Amino acid sequence: MTKLVRLSSTELQNALKVLPQWRSVIRDGQMDHIRRKYQFKTFETSWAFLTRVAMKAHRMGHHPTIINNYNIVELELTTHDVGGISELDVKMAKLLDKAALEMS
Ligand SMILES: C[C@H](O)[C@H](O)[C@H]1CNC2=NC(N)=NC(=O)C2=N1
Questions:
Q1: 2: pLDDT confidence band, cut at 50, 70 and 90?
Q2: Which terminus of the chain has fewer Cβ atoms in its 10 Å neighbourhood, N or C?
Q3: Exposed, middle or buried: residue 80 (CB in 10 Å: 0-12, 13-18, 19+)?
Q4: Do 51 and 40 meet the contact criterion of CB atoms below 8 Å apart?
Q5: Is the Cβ atom of 61 under 6 angstroms away from ligand 1?
Q6: Each residue of 48-76: pLDDT tens digit?
Q7: Among candidate residues 44, 31, 42, 9, the one with its CA nearest the CA of residue 76
Q8: What is the ipTM of this complex?
Q9: What residue's CA is closest to ligand 1, atom 12?
Q10: How far is the CA of 80 from the centre of ligand 1 (A)?
């Protein structure tokens, strides 16, 4: 794995062009994490998705913050080691969107 670096605002905005449902969240004046809300048909489908999220997180050693409310799942991604958002967050967001699409 290449060394992770914090993405600049421009780099992140470019990366999010292919992740239109993800938003960057500013905290203390700088980009802190990216987040996305998913809505599934049922509670069970939400948890089928979250099972896949958990397996990907375990494999990648990268763990989203997970909020679940029945059929709504909200995920947040940040890279603590760089104090912001890195390529790893963007890579994981793409993988999670692919998994969610397969669950729809
Ligand atoms: C030591 C361990 O691999 C690191 O702390 C990992 C764990 N999971 C992680 N998950 C996320 N989202 N960001 C991180 O920076 C991170 N770091």
A1: confident
A2: N
A3: exposed
A4: no
A5: yes
A6: 999 999 999 999 999 999 999 999 999 99
A7: 31
A8: 0.93
A9: 63
A10: 6
Domains and CATH numbers, the chain: 23-103 (3.30.1360.20)
Stated length of the chain: 104
The torsion defined by the Cα of 96, 6, 67 and 60, in degrees rounded to 10, comes to 50
Axis crossing angle, helix 87-103 with helix 43-60, rounded to the nearest 10: 150
Q: Report the relative pairing of strands 72-77 and 65-69 from DSSP bridges.
A: antiparallel
Instruction: Find where tokens 């104090």 sit.
Output: 83
What gap in Å lies between CA 34 and CA 2, rounded to an integer? 21
- The CB of 46 under 6 Å from ligand 1? The reply is no
Rounded to two decimals, what is the model's pTM? 0.94
Name the DSSP class of 20: T
